[in-house]
Design brief:
Shape: extended
Number of domains: 4
Number of strands: 21
CATH superfamily of the largest domain: Hypothetical protein af1432
Helix content: 40-55%
Structural class: alpha+beta
Largest sheet: 6 strands, mixed
């Protein structure tokens, strides 16, 4: 939105500013502009037209004295936005919101004022369009992300919000030359990266192309001028070709008694430049600058017309696409074919009905235009973007961070799709590059959460496999299976990313709570209290007082903060011990003495037994990779949970010197429940079959190989092989190293450590 400016701001000593009275010329210009708008509103009832006029008068008064950068009265901008909305035949409420869309932001009008004057629906639309400039944010990016989140969630509830916003952005881009040149790059980039893709996602192709070309013009003015001149020259050179093709088409369809509309289509300047840039082509190598659209009366006529075109000119193999049988995600339907025209020049043709053409140009806005064509009003709403809008609401409900929400939305903004099938022949559109896991989540979140394997075209494939056009995909699930964090590295869709993150966040919360409970219980033992008190019954009051002390809402929240290192377990334990003492539960002197004698001063944080079942709340440092049997210590990072280091790890030693109060006593449990990763380096005489012999020695020790790295050295002579292996404990690790040292090709084998 272009900020309103007043060229004569009052001085501070002059008191409140007086509204600037428009000149007669400015007043006449605004009135004439609104008169042009009302001439387009013949589809509204008299009552609706009166409401729109009332909104215009209110907006005119609110913006009185404000000028745009061009010097025109500011009201000309809301009128232009409303005029674009009228082109889409939006209803009276949307037109009123378009006229009022800057009132809350620029004119000190409140949402309550709008509700009282125009009703709640109009006020909600205007509020959805209003940026969050009244709130304080740390960065411009954070402000922008939260504003987009607000707008997009409002759009998901009512698509008229984004239609008005796109009309607003389109007019601002048309008049961007009046804005300060320093703003051109930022506004044009934002339009190209955000608003143009949203228009494309909603099928507003005419708006999409215009926003792209306008952004290109202000971002790359020199390139824009060159491409524009090249297209104009090519247009002149190919005029005869275009006229010849037009005449051939008209004669062919007339001969077969078909009534059609034929007109030329010219590729947009930005799409030409993008193709040249992406594929490293010269302008002469871009062959599809010009094409033709053939508009026919009915669906069957599309295929009849296609047959006639293929008889007239030879088709180019592999260049036919049927977007009618399988429409694009944004609702686009058309037959595409490329034919070898006169002078052996390739010409693209698009064949569609009037209704398809309407949707192709105006996308989801065609919902309102369909009201004038009852026979076409049965268009499938799924094709007009409603599924994507619903997915925005779902992601918004699951994602509370604005930047994360915006990251998800950007993933889904580009609808270049592949089409796949379920085993029951249900067709599904997926973004190009989507994987089997994305497909599973597209079916249902429960299917994605419990996916363990997949079959594509009856063949077993890994879950990271990218889906291709025409694939028949079957997902195999298991109730005991849950999302793998590694999936985040390859999933493509926002829905899958959001669902996986939601599960991992929930899992981390549970793990942190369990760790926090262990730490608090151990710290409380150091205070002479055997067990944590029950949350219910006589001790409920103790927990209430402890939560008031800590500032947490629930016991779970407090334990999570302890597990994440945001609170010191010993401090909470001391407070809890005092509250228990006040409630009549005295410390056990024998327990108090034994705990402090055994642990010494190191018990301050409370000790924890590690068995490998702690999942995300406990990490094992990759700098030293400790395994059961190693002497260890724990570092409680702020908000990171517990990291376990080898006691001799140099990283841990440095941390202890700087941050000793965050180290806690940790020890291995008697029976760890899984294997642990560690690193070894094996120096070998390089030669044929060496790696197989080393792997065989490790297998004999029942060790799993996780990763192998070979130093970039000469293939001749000695070479170091670095392995990450999984072992049960230090004893199994030593057995594996012993096996390696007894292998004749091995010169040396040792554990990787940073302690020396």
């Amino acid at each position: 939105m272009c900020a309103a400016t007043n060229p004569n701001p009052p001085k501070a000593s002059q008191g409140p500013p007086l509204p600037k009275v428009m000149s007669a010329a400015e007043s006449n210009a605004a009135a004439a502009s609104f008169a042009r708008l009302t001439s387009r509103l013949d589809y509204l009832s008299a009552a609706d037209l009166a409401s729109v006029k009332s909104a215009y008068r209110y907006s005119d008064e609110a913006h009185l004295g404000q000028l745009r950068n061009s010097g025109e009265p500011y009201i000309t901008h809301p009128i232009a936005v409303a005029a674009q909305c009228a082109e889409w035949k939006l209803d009276a409420q949307a037109l009123m919101a378009a006229l009022l869309h800057d009132a809350m932001e620029d004119c000190a009008v409140t949402k309550t004022d709008l509700i009282e004057r125009f009703g709640s629906p109009v006020a909600e639309l205007v509020d959805g369009l209003t940026k969050l400039e009244k709130l304080q944010f740390n960065t411009r990016e954070e402000n922008q992300a939260e504003s987009f989140r607000k707008m997009l969630l409002a759009m998901a509830r009512d698509v008229r919000v984004i239609l008005i916003k796109l009309a607003d952005r389109t007019h601002n881009m048309r008049t961007l030359s009046d804005a300060p040149r320093t703003k051109w790059a930022r506004i044009a980039s934002e339009t190209l990266e955000i608003y143009a893709p949203i228009a494309h996602r909603l099928g507003l192709n005419q708006t999409y192309r215009e926003l792209q070309d306008l952004s290109f013009r202000y971002l790359r003015p020199w390139r824009y001028a060159i491409v524009s001149k090249a297209v104009a020259k090519a247009r002149g050179r190919r005029r005869d070709l275009i006229q010849k093709v037009q005449a051939d088409l008209e004669a062919t369809f007339e001969r077969h008694g078909m009534t059609v509309r034929i007109y030329g289509r010219e590729k947009s300047l930005y799409s030409i430049y993008h193709k040249m840039d992406e594929k490293n082509l010269s302008f002469a190598q871009v062959t599809d600058i010009y094409g033709f659209r053939v508009i026919v009366p009915g669906l069957i006529d599309c295929y009849t017309a296609l047959g006639l075109l293929h008889q007239l000119y030879k088709p180019v193999p592999g260049k036919f696409k049927d977007h009618i049988a399988i429409s694009k995600i944004n609702g686009y339907q058309s037959l595409h074919t490329t034919l070898v025209g006169p002078s052996s020049i390739n010409v693209e043709f698009q064949v569609r009905t009037e209704a398809m053409h309407l949707v192709a140009e105006t996308g989801i806005a065609a919902h309102w235009l369909y009201k004038e064509s009852p026979d076409e009003s049965k268009a499938n709403p799924d094709r007009l973007g409603s599924k994507w809008l619903q997915s925005l609401l779902d992601i918004g409900n699951e994602t509370h961070d604005a930047n994360e929400f915006w990251e998800h939305v950007k993933v889904d903004l580009f609808p270049d799709a592949v089409y796949v099938f379920t085993p029951k022949s249900r067709i599904m559109a997926m973004p190009r590059g989507a994987t089997v896991v994305d497909f599973a989540y597209a079916i249902h979140s429960n299917v994605g959460d419990h996916a363990v394997a997949a079959r594509v075209n009856n063949e077993q494939v890994p879950l990271r496999t990218e889906v291709q056009n025409g694939d028949v995909i079957e997902i195999i699930t298991a109730k005991e299976s849950y999302p793998n964090p590694a999936w985040m590295g390859f999933v493509r869709t926002a829905r899958a990313r959001s669902k996986i993150r939601q599960h991992l966040r929930s899992l981390a919360q549970d793990d942190s709570q369990n760790l926090g409970e262990k730490m608090l219980a151990q710290a409380l033992r150091a205070e002479g209290i055997e067990h944590l008190p029950d949350e219910q019954g006589a001790m409920a009051g103790v927990w209430d007082k402890l939560l008031r002390f800590s500032g947490n809402r629930t016991r779970s929240d407090l334990l999570v903060e302890i597990g994440l290192g945001r609170r010191i377990a010993s401090i909470v334990a001391k407070r809890l011990a005092k509250l228990l003492s006040d409630a009549g539960e005295k410390p056990n002197a024998l327990l108090l003495t034994r705990e402090r004698f055994m642990a010494g001063e190191a018990v301050a944080q409370g000790g924890v037994a590690i068995d490998g079942s702690e999942n995300t709340s406990v990490r094992f440092a990759t700098c030293c990779r400790p395994v059961p049997g190693d002497p260890i210590l724990g570092y409680l990072g702020r908000g990171e949970g517990l990291t376990v280091h080898h006691r001799d790890c140099q990283v841990a030693v440095k941390l202890k010197n700087k941050d000793s109060e965050r180290f806690i006593v940790v020890e291995w449990a008697d029976e760890p429940v899984r294997t642990f990763e560690t690193g070894i380096v094996v120096t070998v005489n390089n030669g044929k079959g060496v790696l197989a012999k080393v792997a065989s020695a490790l297998a004999a020790a029942e060790v799993d190989i996780i990763q192998i790295n070979m130093a970039d050295e000469s293939p001749q002579g000695a070479v170091d092989l670095k392995f990450i292996i999984a072992v049960r404990d230090a004893q199994q690790l030593e057995s594996a190293l012993r096996n390696l040292r007894h292998t004749h090709v091995v010169l040396k084998a040792q554990r990787i450590t940073n302690s020396n």
